[in-house]
Amino acid sequence: MSTLKTPFRYDFVGSFLRPQILKDSKKKLKNGEIQKDEYDKIVNEEITKLVAKQKKLGFHAITDGEFRRTFWHLDFMWGFEGVEHEDTGNGVKFDAELAKLDDTYLVGKIKAKAHPFVEYFKFLKQFEDENTVAKYTIPAPAQTFQQFIVPNNIEGTRKFYADNDELIKDIAEKNHIICYDVYTGFKWIADVIRKEGGEKFIGGGEESFGYMPGAFTRDKDGVSATSLMAEIAAWVKMQNKTLYSFLKEIYAKYGFSQERMIYIVRKGLSGAQEIKAMMEEFRHNTPKEINHSPVVLKKDYLSLEATNLQTGEKTHLNFETKSDVLQFFLADGSKISVRPSGTEPKIKFYFEGRAQMKDMNDYERAQQDANARIDAIIKDLKLQ
Fold first, then answer.
1. Contact 151/254 with Cβ under 8 angstroms?
2. In the chain, what are the helix, strand and coil shares in percent, each to the nearest 5?
3. What's the predicted TM-score (pTM) here?
4. Where are the alpha helices (DSSP H) in 33-115?
5. 23-70, pLDDT tens digit by residue?
């Protein structure tokens, strides 16, 4: 049993080049020339050799070289119930070269089951001693989330998750991370911290530009957020990048999202009545589709009820207070939020349009597509 303290700042990721015998054995397994147990025996032997080499070189963290994996991230996802995969010859382009990846998609809700990575880690952990600690890497929850909302997966994902919030919650839960939905305003995030404790608080934000990276301010914290941004800027400069190019990388990896807000002014008593009538119209006569995309989910924070408009299933929204807010989630990933202003004679509409980027150079096209989608939604709703 190791007594070492982690992390080791000089550590390596843990993926090593596969020895030739491993490549040959994998090919034989695929061709039916050897059985799975024979292949597993060879893998175990090669991992044992690799661990011995790492110890000899003086590394304090030992890994299995990721010898059991086909892909660095997808194999972990395959270990959950509700996830299937298929080799279709598709992949992702890296510098004009196609990196082949199995299509990985949902066939049901994500649930935990006996995960093979647990047994893989147990095998590795037996080699620990007083100078070493076993290390196993898994993809972040955000990577898992992204896999199931890319354009070629989003339609299938919507059969099991009407909106992204529920998918995020399931992924977070499987990674022992708790997510809370609260109303806009940091007082609601602070309320959760007060009730649950701030020791394990990671971060919280709202749908505008507010962010709270720690539990010590209990409000939007521009100072800490600016410090984090300065650290990011320093890091990207060390990589010979810019903040703008790094932002494009993020969009290319996770998908592009564009937001916009518009409002309609209706003054006086008649205006207030008109705004109320507009909210009631959206609430009780929800369009079946908007901009040729089906409305799959409606969330009503006044009744605290979410309705799957495809199945008719209703679920309770776990909020302590009510608010006159409606949200509509479309099959194409678009989101519309509607609420009357609490201080002005206005009804406000918040739009989110999504688009996928092939690479960093696709940024302008994705931005145009997302904005065009929002324009079309506004036109279809006859708001302008």
1. no
2. 40, 20, 40
3. 0.58
4. 36-56, 74-78
5. 999 999 999 999 999 999 999 999 999 999 999 999 889 999 999 998
